[in-house]
Amino acid sequence: MTDRTFYENLDAIDPLEPLRAEFHLPVDAIYLNGNSLGVMPLAAPVRAKHVMLQEWADDLTASWNKAQWSTLPLQLGNKIAPLAGVGPDEIVVCDSTSVNLYKVLYTAMDIMRRRAPEKRRIVSEKNSAPTDLYIAQTLCTQFGMTLDLVDSDTLHAAIDDHLAILLLTHVNYQTGAVHNMADLTARAHLHGALAVWDVCHSVGAIPIEFGRSDADFAVGCTYAYLNGGPGAPAFVWVHPRHVDQIAQPLAGWMGHAAPLAFDQQYQPAAGILRYLCGTPAILSMSVLESGLDVFHKAQGYGGMTEIHKKAQTLTSLFIQLVEKECAGSGLRLLSPRDPEQRASLVSLTHPSAAHAIIQALRARGVIGAYREPDILRFGFAPLYTRYTDVWDAVMQLKSVLTTLS
Ligand SMILES: Cc1ncc(COP(=O)(O)O)c(C=O)c1O
Questions:
Q1: Could you give all domains of the chain from N- to C-terminal order, each with its CATH number?
Q2: Which tens digit of pLDDT belongs to each residue from 265-302?
Q3: 18, 157, 218, 317: which has the fewest Cβ within 10 Å?
């Protein structure tokens, strides 16, 4: 791994390499921010044009049936299902992650209020995504519950008989550290609690098994590794044991059992469709489908197994190369060193120049992200990131550090 040839050879034998051609990639740039906003599938503008100029412009309301607009939220959910380890008609695409989290967390709190009203404690991780914490804080006030934020190494101990709901992001957005969904869910269940998962930073990057993990509720975004486009709608999954037991709080007409009956009384639809609220964002959803279709194609190239393997190799090589080439620069590894405990991103810290380094890299065409207070974050989306990108990015990083010192 001491010269570029090693990385070129890895690219030459990469089974996922043909999938890179499915995307528009920025010219003269190494994009290491696909964990935030995925790149554009080449099929997306073609699909958008068709939806706009044919389905919308010419066919108008006929498209609800003719172009299957009305079933798009479930169709897309069914395309996400294999990435999340669940069966058909268990996931629906709609709204944003934050809104969907509101729905499922409210529902989970409602279940616990009926099942064990004495349990009033929600546990989450200290540096969880802020939006998840804001939603949890709002609902805790509404339900008279308390939100306890703990460090990841004390999570196990925090799951005790007082716990009502465990709310976790599967992969931490700052560090890329992966929680064991099955173990933590099992522990929560053992103590009579429910487990709610946010998979924004894991879906499409590492395998997820909602079903086998026996999770209760989950939400995730589609604009990151699923390449759904800016502001693409999110998705929601509810375990079949809960889904028909209780109505979600945002009772809109699209979640009604018969939306076109225009009934004055709300009657929730059966199954996951009740988690819909208002009219689906057809343009965004259509574009998202182009991103999901690449994952479908990826099944012919080893699917999530190869994607996960490549994520681990890319991130491991990046860490090894940074530690070798940038030794003594003040950079420290924040992400877990063990690839099994890490998703598809690597975070480093620098005590004084994290922001300046990210800016200098950007000027040289290496796109990472800065996170307060001292974090440099690099995402390695396996569908389109090359091994040579790792080499080239680290060489630029080394050069930037030399100019800064
Ligand atoms: C873990 C996590 N959850 C939720 C969100 C926000 O999702 P949305 O903007 O779809 O509500 C983010 C944003 O990046 C996130 O990182």
A1: 4-42+303-404 (3.90.1150.10), 68-297 (3.40.640.10)
A2: 999 999 999 999 999 999 999 999 999 999 999 999 99
A3: 157
